[in-house]
Amino acid sequence: MSAKESNNTGALYNLFQAILNHKELYQQLSNLFIEIIKELSNHEQFYWTHNIWFEEGSILNFLNESDFDVILSCLEKFNSIEVQEEELLKPICIEYPEKIIRFFEKRVNITIQNIVLDIIY
């Protein structure tokens, strides 16, 4: 049984860390990397955001537009955007600024919706 099938987020995070520790394999492992991010986020485990920095040699440099869409989708579920998450947004902002605008628009709309629901209930 795989870590995903058994909902073993600890094993997924260990695999995530192993990928980050092997820069020479970033290109080959970028798809697995994104799948792990999706699975961790589905389990509301967002500590992965603290381990990715946008710098020369970062795995972010090996991701494509659809990978960035996945990251944005995962971050939509995250409660607060701090410096670690801002690092994830940098390469997306450089390459796809319109995606960042839509991302924050969605976050603002979700916040407004939650405020309205709190007022109603």
Number of helices: 5
- Taken from the alpha-carbon principal axes, the silhouette is globular
Q: Into which percentage range does the β-strand content fall?
A: under 5%
Q: What is the element string, with H for helices and E for strands?
A: HHHHH
Give the low-pLDDT segments. Answer: none
How are the SSEs ordered, and which strands pair?
Elements: H1 9-20, H2 26-42, H3 65-76, H4 83-95, H5 97-120
Helix pairs in contact: 1-2, 2-3, 3-4, 3-5, 4-5
Describe the structure.
Helices cover 64% and strands 0% of the residues. The protein has 121 residues and is an all-alpha fold. It has one domain. The radius of gyration is 15 Å and the shape is globular.
Characteristic terms for this protein:
121 residues, mainly alpha, globular
Give a short overview.
This protein is an all-alpha fold and 121 residues long.
